[in-house]
Amino acid sequence: MLQTKKKVLIFIDWFLPGIKAGGPIKSVSAIVNQLSSEFDFYVLTTDTDFGEQQPYQGIESNKWIDYKGKAKVCYLSKSHLNPQVIENHIRGIAPHTIYINSFYSKFFSIIPLKVIKMIGYEGRLVLAPRGMFSKEAFLIKTFKKKLFIAYSKFIIS
């Protein structure tokens, strides 16, 4: 009997070939590289590197493409950063697990969380804010972060 791998949908603002966002890109690419034999990964990300306006050259936006045989990646253009597109991808993939690699991201944490709640998603959810909720992290841009958290609670509830 052929056992199918469980699907994992990852939401991350930036992914390879991007390099400017540093650690998060490295962390998620390591997860994909190390666990691709056990899981089918789908990475939903932007089509630009951190701080850039121009899309990656040679990569087609808004379409699932193969990433080294280890994952499928969809690089979203700005025009596709909206709740309907996010919902379509969640429904289309029907993942066992959704992995959100941040907290302070409108399009890659808050909107996915809102859509997950709206559609009644019953799979596993992993929120990986890394050090974003540490006491030290709140010393930087405290008001903005507290405002974002309040907004998040309002929008998701």
Quick structural summary:
By secondary structure, this protein is of the alpha/beta class. It contains 4 helices and 6 strands.
Describe what this molecule looks like in 3D.
With 157 residues, this protein is an alpha/beta fold. It has a single domain (6-156), classed as Rossmann fold (3-Layer(aba) Sandwich), CATH 3.40.50. Helix content is 34%, strand content 20%. It has four helices and six strands; from the N terminus they run βαβββαβαβα. The protein has helices spanning 23-35, 83-93, 106-119, 142-156, and strands spanning 6-11, 39-46, 64-67, 71-76, 97-100, 124-127. The chain has a six-stranded mixed beta sheet with strand order 3-4-2-1-5-6. β5, α3 and β6 form a beta-alpha-beta unit. The longest helix has 15 residues, at 142-156. The termini are far apart. The model has no long low-confidence stretch (mean pLDDT 90).
